[in-house]
Amino acid sequence: MADMFLGRRGLLGATGAMLAAPALAQAPVRDITIQLWGTTWTGSLRQVGQRFEQATGIKVNAVTQATSGEGLVRLQSMRAAPTIDVWFTTSSVAERAKTDSQLFLPLPMASLPSAAAIEPGARASHWIGVYFYQLGIVWRPDLVREPITSWQDLWQPRFAQKLGVPTMNSYQGRVLITAAMLNGGSISNVDPGFEALKRLKPNVVTWYSSDTTARQALAQGELSVLVAPPAALKRLSDAGVPGRMISPPPSPMMYDALMLVNTPKKEAAAKFIDFCLTKEMQDFIAQGQGMGPVHPQASTLPEIAAVLPRPQDRVSFDDDVINANIAAWNERFNREVTN
Questions:
Q1: Residue 95: pLDDT over 50
Q2: Which residues, 6+ apart, have CB-to-CB distance to 59 below 8 Å?
Q3: pTM of the model
Q4: Which of 104, 161, 259, 314 has its CA 20 to 30 A from that of 35?
Q5: Closest-CA residue to 266 (of 23, 26, 49, 97)
């Protein structure tokens, strides 16, 4: 009888363990959250998220950021328990952010089969480019009589109170470095750039940090000229407003990139990153954003392809140097240029 009792107790214990097992198993991920710029979400990533949900059953939620710097501060504030799974940022900020090993994970390349096709310059240990673009000059031909042919044209008196120019944190100091190069300086000697930006000030209506606001101002005629990537030209086209663009040398090249945040949803987040890198999604994202695709077989809009800079005019800057100096540059910019 005792043996029978023990057998029953063992059976009950085993049954209880089997019943408890499903509760201990990890529940399937039903959604992920991405942090990105509002223009990127509305331009293409909302639809990419919807397609990802159709393909995987995983919903994509979005949190918007005005700049990569703002986005990084938000992520750092939730380091202990981040609620964002994938972060869209610039390659420059990604290089700075990757040193936070608690917050950001190396990309699991074995889980990203689509990454193998991406051009080598758009891949790093902790980030991968989702599209590329240059900083150029976009203008309204109905408001600017003579075509713009070079960076130096922006300093002409005819552009008094007509320009929109990025702040130092927008595009990570590329305007400063470009201005320095035009005046005999370099990334390691930006004094000529600061002096040039001071001389440019009478022509500037706004030093902008929000792409959305700046592109809307250009479309509405509050500005005539915008220093911006090709997406600003697409914004004019979408609004039925005439626009032109030039990418004069030196033409700073940049990537917007994806980073994997250290959350319990990292496997699902990696699936989303890989989904964004497929040729089909690269076509969709590049054309929706008005940018250049990082997949070699993908294509952008013809009008955007027409304004991409010639290879010999493209310049890339050392992100380590930028990250080491951007805080000081920003402080000096606010003190000497915008005040």
A1: yes
A2: 30, 31, 32, 49, 53
A3: 0.80
A4: 314
A5: 26
